[in-house]
Write a structure and sequence with these properties.
The complex is a heterodimer of chains A (245) and B (457).
Chain A: H1 34-51, H2 57-61, E1 67-71, H3 77-82, H4 84-87, H5 92-95, E2 105-110, H6 115-135, E3 143-147, H7 153-161, E4 165-171, E5 182-188, E6 199-205, H8 212-229
Parallel strand pairs in A: 1-3, 2-3, 2-4
Antiparallel strand pairs in A: 4-5, 5-6
Chain B: E1 3-7, E2 10-14, H1 17-24, H2 29-33, H3 41-52, H4 58-61, H5 71-78, H6 82-85, H7 93-101, H8 107-113, H9 119-128, H10 131-139, E3 145-146, E4 150-151, E5 158-161, H11 170-182, E6 189-192, H12 199-215, E7 222-224, H13 228-234, E8 243-246, H14 251-256, H15 261-274, E9 284-288, H16 292-295, H17 304-316, E10 322-325, H18 338-354, E11 359-361, H19 373-386, E12 390-393, E13 398-399, E14 404-405, H20 409-419, H21 425-433
Parallel strand pairs in B: 5-6, 5-12, 6-7, 8-9, 9-10, 10-11, 11-12
Antiparallel strand pairs in B: 1-2, 3-4, 13-14
Helix pairs in contact in B: 1-3, 5-17, 7-9, 9-17, 9-18, 10-18, 10-19, 13-15, 17-18, 18-19, 19-20
Classes of the chains: A alpha/beta (245), B alpha/beta (457).
Chain lengths: 245, 457
């Protein structure tokens, strides 16, 4: 393979500096060279592994935070992928395990479509965010860890906790170049039946995308604004501009 | 009206037309999610047997969504062509299947019949057909459309060049566009999904493609796939060739897309007045896909494949250049795996063609669907055999903006070579003239001194 004897190269690889798209791949006959085929297959394998990854519960329970472990109504990944409605509802046993905490915010970590993302990025993000919140005397309910969950499950959880605001961290749908993207959704006065236009979303949190420090600062800004204005969603504008390094 | 069918003393009852259609539909996750699927394998076949005996005329007497409630039902009923329908008026749905596969139904006959067939008839007959049937019937149909080139001729396969970029960077888009053109893609349209819907961004992207097209005399058309209202807003200031819109098969679905028949009519009229087509005036580009109605909570208890077919009634009204079913984009809760995606794509292609539409298919999947490149190879090959008008061309099959996998420029070369399919004739001449293809359709090596590379490397 090192010789690539049969490959017709594309003499425009200079264009690659303008885009991350897979251009100037060369060809053998009509086909993509094997080297590129295997790179693609590896990227897809990472994405598929991320979809079928599970939350590392031990990783979270080792942290110095009070953790509550919950499960949605989706029995397993296959059920989860075909029944988004089940991923939005707590399993009855989980729903029965609550007592209202009456705190300002509820931090909820959900596997979503990439538990890998939650395993890798939720803890470093919370480690940065928590001190910021406490510095402004914003109180936090115990951290809720949800298996087989979707975004809207945070509404039921936030409602049961009687939190003013939910901060939901969830693994986003893996792309070929990003199997570990974490998304964060802020929802004021969470309760079942809320629709997506009432949330604010911060996407692509990972070292190669939106780094932890910037993500935490952005979330902190939005949390303060949400509590001040008593709302989230399209009326809450993301005017936060980070100081450039 | 309701129907009963008995198999071995077990009696199945189908209370109305939409229930019968849903129960007869081959299994897919979206119908199960909606709670509309057959409960057992036997019930599905019982529904199909009932549907096979149903006179086609039933669809002119009963609507799956009430006439008073839905403007697409009104469109379907009010524009039905009784003359075109006459030759098949006495058939049942099962009879239509047999007729479609018979030698009587040749290319010319099928063209004449299109206006007599309603979306629900097309959906119904497709539910009785095997994949093989969907391919061999579609293969006989030819739907030709024109703007700056001729798309859909038999023996030809066009490609939408899709040079998307995650931040709409003009140089990044130009790089992918050049890559695609050098690989022989772009005769259906050069079409960008913009990362933002702002009018300024749309104008700058339209200008970018149009300048390039004129500089190198590329016989094709461009489109930025913004919302139709954005296109209407910019069309006096920017070079708008094709007007794009996502559409669905219920009035409610279209409302969720922010459109109605009257808005589409208004945009269509405005686009026609631009008169930018040189050899034809098919000015619309529509995208559809099974599951969009359920996703918008607007399916009215109609199965997703019937909803999809009804979207084609909307498209048909506006003589589009291209209709693209983005089959695997929606995710596994609607089409779970490669098998369901392949089946849905063949149904959509067949139903659209039967109704007289220039169907293309985005052969694609997301990373949470149970599908991979092998499934896409299979589907692309089947669609090539079925005579699909166009497919997508995305660098290396990886769309870095929409985060899904479609077909690559290489895939287009593969299917053209494997089946002897050629590009649109005007574009083919351009490829030959620019030294990118020989007279036999073979891709030629591109030197670094090539004209298209001179200003960019």
């Amino acid at each position: 393979m090192s010789e690539e004897l049969y490959i017709t190269p594309d003499p425009w690889s200079g264009l690659r500096r303008f885009t991350a798209a897979r251009i100037a791949l060369g060809r053998t006959g009509a086909a993509i060279p094997l080297r590129e085929v295997l790179q693609f297959r590896l990227a897809h394998a990472h994405a598929r592994d991320a979809v079928f990854s599970a939350l590392d519960l031990r990783l979270f329970t080792q942290q110095p935070w009070e953790i509550n472990i919950l499960h949605s109504e989706a029995a397993d990944r296959t059920d989860y992928l075909q029944r988004p409605d089940k991923g939005r509802k707590l399993h009855p046993a989980s729903a029965a395990s609550f007592a209202p905490a009456n705190k300002d915010v509820a931090i909820i970590v959900v596997d979503g479509l990439s538990a890998t993302a939650a395993n890798q990025h939720a803890i470093p993000l919370i480690e940065r965010l928590m001190p910021m919140l406490l510095s402004r005397k914003i109180s936090c309910a115990p951290i809720q860890l949800v298996q087989q969950g979707r975004v809207a499950i945070g509404d039921e959880i936030g409602g049961l906790l009687q939190a003013k605001l939910s901060i939901l961290l969830i693994g986003e749908r893996p792309g070929l170049s990003s199997p570990d993207s974490l998304g964060v959704y802020l929802t004021f006065s969470p309760r079942p039946g809320i629709t997506d236009e009432a949330r604010n979303c911060i996407s692509n949190i990972r070292p190669e995308g939106l780094p932890y420090d910037m993500a935490a600062a952005k979330i902190f800004y939005l949390v303060q604004e949400a509590l001040r204005l008593q709302l989230t969603g399209i009326m809450l504008k993301d005017n936060y501009t980070p100081a450039l390094p | 009206m309701s129907w009963r069918h008995t198999i071995h003393h077990r009696s199945y009852h189908f209370s109305d037309l939409k229930t019968l259609l849903a129960k007869a539909s081959p299994h897919r996750s979206g119908d199960a999610l909606a709670g509309l699927s057959a409960d057992t394998y036997e019930e599905r076949v019982a529904a199909q047997m009932t549907l096979a005996d149903l006179p086609l005329k039933t669809f002119l007497q009963q609507a799956v969504i009430p006439y008073e409630q839905d403007e697409i039902t009104r469109l379907i009923m009010d524009t039905h062509d009784a003359t075109a329908f006459a030759p098949i008026a006495s058939l049942t749905v099962g009879g239509l299947r047999d007729w479609l596969l018979s030698d009587l139904a040749d290319t010319a006959t099928l063209r004449q019949t299109a206006a007599g067939i309603t979306p629900e008839m097309a959906a119904a007959v497709s539910k009785l057909m095997r994949n093989q049937d969907l391919i061999s019937a579609a293969r006989k149909m030819e739907v030709v459309t024109k703007f700056r080139n001729t798309i859909g001729l038999k023996g030809r396969l066009s490609v939408r060049l899709q040079p998307n970029h995650n931040t709409d960077d003009p140089k990044g888009i130009a790089a992918s566009m050049i890559d695609g053109l050098l690989y022989g893609s772009g005769d259906a349209v050069i079409g960008i999904n913009p990362a933002t819907d702002s009018p300024e961004a749309v104008i700058s992207l339209l200008t970018l493609i149009d300048n390039f097209r004129q500089q190198y005399h590329v016989p094709t058309q461009s489109c930025v796939l913004c919302h139709i209202t954005t296109a209407m807003q910019v069309m006096r200031k920017a070079p708008v060739d094709l007007v794009f819109q996502s559409i669905g098969g219920t009035e409610k679905t279209n409302r969720s897309f922010g459109v109605s028949l009257s808005l589409l009519e208004e945009a269509y009229t405005a686009a026609l007045e631009l008169k930018r087509g040189t050899i034809g005036n098919n000015v619309m580009y529509f995208e559809t896909g099974q599951g969009s109605s359920l996703s918008a909570n607007a399916h009215e208890d109609v199965d997703q494949q019937t909803c999809e077919s009804r979207a084609y009634a909307v498209a048909r009204r506006f003589n589009p250049l291209l209709v693209n079913t983005v089959v695997g984009f929606i995710g596994p809760e609607y089409l779970f795996d490669g098998k369901q995606i392949i089946r849905a794509a063949l149904e959509d292609h067949f139903c659209g063609k039967l109704l007289g539409l220039p169907m293309g298919v985005d052969v694609c999947y997301t990373n949470h669907a149970n599908a991979d490149q092998d499934d896409m190879d299979t589907l692309l090959t089947l669609l090539g055999v079925a005579g699909c008008n166009f497919v997508m061309g995305v660098p290396g099959a990886d769309d870095i903006m929409l985060n899904y996998q479609s077909t690559s420029f290489h895939d287009a070369l593969y299917i053209r070579q494997a089946l002897g399919l050629r590009p649109a004739p005007e574009f083919e001449q351009w490829l030959i003239q620019y030294g990118l293809m020989d007279q036999n359709g073979k891709a030629l090596p591109v030197p670094s001194s090539h004209l298209l590379l001179q200003n960019y490397l």
